[in-house]
Each structure stands twice: as C-alpha cells, then as structure tokens.
Design brief:
Chains A, B: It is an enzyme of class 2 (transferase). Chains A, B: It comes from Cucurbita moschata. Chains A, B: Pfam families: CTP_transf_1. Chains A, B: This is Phosphatidate cytidylyltransferase. 2 copies of one chain form a homodimer. By secondary structure, chain A is an all-alpha fold. Chain A folds into 2 domains: 366 residues, no CATH class; 38 residues. Chain A contains 18 helices and 2 strands. In chain A, helix 6 crosses helix 7, helix 6 runs antiparallel to helix 8 and helix 10 crosses helix 14. The radius of gyration of chain A is 26 Å and the shape is flat. Chain A starts with 12 loop residues before the first helix and ends with a helix. The interface between A and B is large, with 69 and 69 residues.
Chain lengths: 423, 423
C-alpha cells in the first residue's frame, strides 16, 4: 500500500541542482526548494516521511488483520478500497457550478457503480454462493435462479440508467453531461478491473493475492530508500523524483524478497488453498507439486565451509521470481501513468483519504497493474486451465436438477461399466 | 441499417412553427428552414430521401448477399463495419495541430484496436477453431496452445501499448494525450461490445442476428414514414425531428413485423441452426420445440366466414414479440444518445461513409443496443444456458482420464446420497 514519491529525488545539494535544471518544468514541491531553504526542505522531507511511515503502519496492521480473518474479510477490504477509489475519482472532474443545476446527476454515478458491483461480484461469486447454500432447498432454488438471470437483470439495470441519463439531459449542459458519462464509465472500468481480478486471486488462494500485493509494497519502500540515499540519475521525465538508482535497487530487493517470501507463505495452507465457497472456516487441501518442498544438494565447497548440505525449494518460488520481475519492472509504469495523469489535469493527489500518502487511488496505481498480471499469470502458467473433476461437479450443482443429476449418474455408471467389460 | 432523422419533424407549416418555437436552440437544418424557404426545404427533403433510399438499396443488397453466403461472411461484414466505425470515431476528436507534433501517436490507436480484435475474436472463435482443425494433430496442438495462452499474449500486447503510451508522453501535450487515450478506450469498448455480441448471435443461428437487425431497420423506416406523413407532436428535446406519431406507428409496425418475420425466418434451417465450427457448408439440425409449428384451432366464427380452420405458430414467434417490443421502445434510446452526443460536440454526423446517411456509426447506434439485448435475451430466456446432461457427458469423455471418471462417479453418488438421506 506504500508508493508514490518513491525513487526519491537526488539527496545531495549539487545533484539536486543538476537534477532541477534538467526537469525545469517542475512540480510545486520542486520549485519550493530553492537554494536558501535546502535545510528546511530536508527537515520537511524527514517529517513527511514520518507521517507516511505512521499511516503505513496502520494500513499494514489492518491488512494483516484481514489476512488473518480470511477470504471474505479480505474481499470486504477490497470493496471498501474500491468505494473510496470511486469516490475520489468521481469527485475529481466534478464541477460544482454545473452540478447545482443538475439535481440527482451525481446519484447516477453511484447507480452505475452498484449495478457494476452486482454484475461483477455476482459473476465472481455466484459459483461459490451456490456451493454455500446447497443445504437449504428453497434458498438454493432462489439463488440459482438469481444466478441464471443475473446477466439479464444487470442489463436491464444498466439500460434503465442509460435511459435515465438521456431523459435528464439538459440544454447547454450536454457537453458536461456526456463528459461525465464517459468519465464515469472509465472509472468503473478501472476500479472494477482492479477489484474483480483481485477478488479472483483471493479465492484461488490468498497466496496469489498476498505475494503480489506485498511485492509492490516492498518495491515501493525499497525504491524510496534507495532513491533517498543513493538517487542521482533521473529515471523518467514524467515523474522527476524517480531515479535509476532507486529503480535498480528496488528491483534487486523485490526479486530476492519474492523468492524468499514465497518459501515462507507457501508453507501455510491458509494461504495456499483455494476457497470454493463463501465460508470462513479452516482450510485443508493437498498442497500439490507447487507447494511441496524439493531438495537440492549444494555443491561440494559449501558444506565444507557452512553447516548446510542441501536446500529445500518450493516450485512456486520460481513463479515468484516472475512475479517479482513484473512487480519491479512493469508495474511501476502504473505509477508513471498516474503521475502523468495528475500532471495533465494539474492535481497533486487523487484525494486525501490517507495522511501523508494522498488518496487511496495514489496508493493503488501499481497494485492494479499487478493484480491483473497475477491473475493472468496464474491462469495461464500455474494452473492447467482444463476441465477437472471439481469443475464438472460445480457445473452439475449449478445447472442440473436433482432428476437430471440422477440421470447423469446412471449414464456415467453405464459408460464406466461398458469400458470395464471387454467387448 | 436505416435510421436517423426518423420520426421526421412536423410536416405541416403551422405544426413546424409550433415545433420550432418549442425547441428554439435548434440545429443547423432547423434554422435554415425559415418561413420563406418552406417549399425549397420540402423539395430538399424529397431529394435527400431519394439519395438515402438509393444507398439503402445497396446496403440491403450487400447484406442479403452476406446472409446467403453464411456465417463467416456475415462475420467479415461485421468486422468491416467495425473498422469503419473505429476510423470515424478515432478521427472525431482528433486535432491535426497536436498530432503533427506527436509522430506515431495515431498508430497507437490502431495497435490497441488490433490487440482488442485478437482478444475478442480469439475468445469468441477459439472453441470453433479447435473444433475445425481436429483432423490435423500438429495444427491442433498449435491452435490449442495458442488458445491456452491467448489471454496472456493479449495482456502483454496491451501492456506493451501502455508502456509505449507512457514513454511517448510529451511535455505540454499531456492533457491531449491522456484525453485521446481515454477516448480510444471508450471507442474500443463501444465498437467491440457491439461486434462481439453480434458475432456471438450469428453463431447461435443467423436468425438471432438477422431478426433483431431487420427489426431495427423496419422500425427506422416506419418511424421515418409515419413521422413524415403524420408527425405533429415532438417526442424528445434532444432529437427535435422525432415525433410521437412516428414512434407509435413504428412500434406497432415493428411488433407485427417481428411476429410475421419470425414465422418466415424460423422455417429455414440455414437461419435457425447454430454453427459449431468455422466451416461454410450446409447446415442441418433438429429444429427443436422453438422452431416446430404448433397448431391452434381458430374460434368457431372464423371458419364459417373464411376458409381457415387453424393457424400454425412457431414458439419462437412469442420471443420475436419481445424482440420487437425492445427494438421499438428501448433501442431508439441508442439513437437519442447518439443525437445528444453529436449535439454536445457540435458535429452533424459521425462521418461521411454512406451518401445520404452520414457515417456508418450514425446507422449503428440502435443496432448496438439491440445486438447486446438479443444476446442476453437469447442466453437468459431462450436456451437453457447450454449445460445439459449431454454436454456434461461430452466434457467428461473429452477431458477426463478413466480414473478421474471413476472418481467423479463416486463423488456424484455420494452427493446424491447426502441429499436423499435427511440429516
């Protein structure tokens, strides 16, 4: 949850001057630090670092609690973050003067937000919801028909909002209203892409959410400190505080951390097991080859010097290196994008929800890119996409009536019988 | 493919004056027709109607040819329309002065366009492509691994474009560039939502594409003529040429046409059978209860007056009425939206691809809303979502090993047992 202003800008006065000359288009803080105030600026820097550290500790604490409480609570955290992000972004391009003449126009945003929420979470969780309520027959019927018509219901909700928008169009406001409509859609796409992939990751096993999110945090903190102490060479014009030293230092730190963290996290079944329903109970599963330790003998000279003869490595640690590479090399572009956006629209932060950090959106830029990558990486390279015994059972539970299930059972039985008896 | 300027504005001079007073913000054509030019305006109206009719005949001819040639050709037509739409929309908010300073910036749009194309069509057609190449083992392996990694490939293509965008950001152009980036995404969503639902409909059976598309055309032509001859009462401020008379006349016409057309179209297996692969050969399938004629005896007094004793009705005709209702009541809002958008950004048409009609986008506004509805309606209320006892047996035979099949059998047995014994 830690980022922004990382790859901190050059700390020695001469380097800072050199740097300022290069990026002379400057942003407010840069301009404030003219020669005579260098010391004051340094003191401010430490003070702001302290505030940031303080809120960071609170955030990490809340985060750890959610992880401890389990999948549903992490999901609730994601939803809360998502609502805050949407609020920050909805307010961003809002103009009070125009809004006063358009009563109810803001509620349309939230109407679309909750329609999208029903659609996205409905699709993500329907399977698990059905799995959860199998014991009660009435509830089961209700839920499964809700699942069946979910797409149609969402479509009609959307169309109702669309018609509401058109019927409340007001003379001379067309451009503002269409602009807001498009902006609302962009926000919903950004916010829901992020959250839906994150939630999908959570249910694949907390590991696939926790490791990527942690790597982004580690990369940001490392970039901040490497930049703070060694930063000299500006990295990219759009984010003048970022330096190559911060970028490279952070990459190395992140990749090593990924390898080590995966080893630790990979040993807790609470983190590695997927969750098939919406309960919160204890999890047990076969760890599978991914999370089973493999022993590698060390080359001859190490055991003579050190007391170690072999290392144990989980196969998932190699995947973790890929995640680390992405988190440190590609994901920062999410941050560059956000910096550029803020510069384009001349805003300092997306909001002010977290003291010392700015808005929640400012903290989520790289997390979003990372969550999508983790999901696609997991689906494409970690699990076999295929049809498994479990996926077929899920389909049966969701789509067939009890009679059909019995018919299927009989047919499979016959099929197996036919194969056993040589013809 | 016919629409826009439908629900034609009041034709009698007094009604027109009354109408103009009400919508005095006016659009260019409205303003031109001041009192002394009423006759000239009427002549222009007939001339433009002739040009429109002429291009309409060409469009309908091309359309009919595509229907005759089959699914792949209809899909090709959809792709061509989609490319034209994207070109019109990409050019819409383009500013030449800024573009000259950003070499290569336009190609980014098309890069994203083709990435989206690969993603959407890949997902839609992958299963059918795999079904098509089952005979050649090498090709099969190639295609199925391409399908497996398709999502990852698309993600990397997108991320490459995203990084390209960030690395080519140019000082003082940020706002224009971010605006264009957002606009490109909005266009791609609109264009690909439309085309992907349309293509999905085509492969469910041409019927599910042809009937909705035809209903929109009929509704537009009917609204045009009803409005032209009877239009008096303005319908909606945003589209001052549309009248209640045109709207209601068109609705009745469309609903009756839907009922009758479904009866005709429902008798050709070329139109009703789904296509499971990418071949173009003849289609045969069991018509199913939807397309099987049912006999209804007529009440006593009709056979005494007329030579008919019973009518045959296909069950799909009742569904057609729902499509007709939507096409005539909700889909026009797509047109209102487009009118409002054009007014907001002070443009007359989205482009000039079709003489007498404006841009292709001007013709597709209602079609887009309709295509999405048809798909969702078909999936939710016409077919049972596809998962049946047979489809599950197919999956089991294709994907599970013998041991897995036995495991599945045991698990289903257990499941059924659990439900039978009251706990």
């Amino acid at each position: 949850m830690q980022r922004q202003n990382s790859f901190h800008y050059p700390s020695s006065p001469s380097a800072r001057l050199r740097h300022r000359r290069r990026s002379n288009e400057g942003i407010p803080e840069d301009l404030k630090s003219n020669g005579s105030h260098l010391l004051v600026n340094d003191r401010n820097k430490y003070k702001s670092m302290l505030i940031r550290a303080y809120s960071s500790i609170w955030m990490i604490g809340g985060f750890a609690l959610a992880i401890y409480l389990g999948h549903l609570f992490i999901m609730a955290m994601v939803v809360v973050i998502q609502i805050f992000m949407a609020r920050e972004l909805f307010n961003l391009l809002r103009r009070t003067h125009e809004d006063r003449q358009l009563p109810g126009f803001r509620s349309l945003n939230w109407y679309f937000f909750f329609t999208a929420m029903f659609f996205v979470y409905g699709r993500l969780l329907s399977q698990r919801l059905v799995n959860t309520v199998t014991t009660d027959k009435v509830l089961y019927l209700l839920v499964s028909s809700l699942v069946k018509y979910q797409m149609a219901i969402c479509y009609f909700l959307y169309i109702a909002g669309f018609m509401w928008f058109i019927l409340t169009l007001k003379k001379k406001m067309y451009k503002y209203q269409f602009g807001q409509y498009a902006w609302t859609h962009m926000i919903l796409i950004v916010v829901f892409t992020q959250s839906s992939f994150t939630v999908a990751n959570i249910f694949e096993g907390i590991f696939w959410f926790l490791l990527p999110a942690t790597l982004i945090v580690i990369n940001d903190i490392a970039a901040y400190f490497f930049g703070f102490f060694f930063g000299r060479t500006p990295l990219i014009k759009i984010s003048p505080k970022k330096t190559w030293e911060g970028f490279i230092g952070a990459s190395v730190t992140t990749i090593i951390s990924a390898f080590m963290l995966a080893h630790i996290m990979g040993r807790f079944s609470w983190l590695t097991c997927p969750r098939k329903d919406l309960s919160t109970g204890w999890l047990h599963c076969d760890p599978g080859p991914l999370f089973t330790p493999e022993y590698y003998a060390l080359p001859g000279w190490i055991p003579t010097w050190f007391p170690w003869k072999a290392v144990t490595i989980l196969r998932v640690q190699w995947h973790a290196i890929c995640l680390g590479l992405f988190a440190s090399i590609i994901a920062p572009f999410g941050g560059f994008f956000a910096s550029g956006f803020k510069r384009a629209f001349k805003i300092k932060d997306f909001g002010d929800s977290i003291p010392g950090h700015g808005g929640i959106t400012d903290r989520m830029d790289c997390q979003m890119v990372m969550a999508v990558f983790s999901y696609i990486y997991h689906q494409s390279f970690v699990v076999s996409q295929g049809i498994t015994v479990e996926s077929i059972i899920d389909q049966i539970l969701m789509n067939l009536t009890f009679d059909e299930q019995q018919l299927l059972f009989t047919k499979i039985g016959q099929m197996l019988q036919d194969r056993l008896i040589p013809q």
